[in-house]
Amino acid sequence: MDIVLLSLVDETLETVLVRRGSEPFRGCWAFPGGFVDIGETLADAAARELSEETGIRDVCLEAFGTFDAVDRDPRGRTISVAHIGLTGRRVTPQPADDAVEAMLVSLEHLPELAFDHAEMLESALEWLAARLGLCTRVPASFTHLTTAQQSATNTALTHLMERRRQQPC
Q1: Whole-angstrom Cα distance, residue 118 to residue 113?
Q2: Mean per-residue pLDDT, 58-73
Q3: pTM (2 decimals)?
Q4: Which residues are catalytic?
Q5: Which domains does the chain have, with CATH numbers?
């Protein structure tokens, strides 16, 4: 479970990173994250991990992708259901738990990231662009659809998103 929290303030898109205090990747920058506890939902785990490692609470998080490369974590087989959050306020992360440092950093000045988190960020941004209707590229897995089918799918998704916008996160 990893959390990509984006903050958009003054037309600058920033993200929250934590410096890892333990192996693997001790001392490296990464997204906040961790493991799901027994009896815990993915959504609850994402909110808990974000709070435990950065002190940030009350942010709407949504799952955006699954990262399952066999070698993504040197400790063993680890699958991450990554979550994304977008806020229009400046957040101030405070390191805690196994994070020894936390920062809000511009996407234009990112340090090298641990694990597969650079790939995760790219996927998060693509997901967000598609969610906001900014993406015009059809994913390769959907190229078998005709133009009419793609248009019908887009219309159906647009109606669905309109209904969802009327509901709280």
Answers
A1: 6
A2: 91
A3: 0.80
A4: 101
A5: 3-134 (3.90.79.10), 138-169 (no CATH)
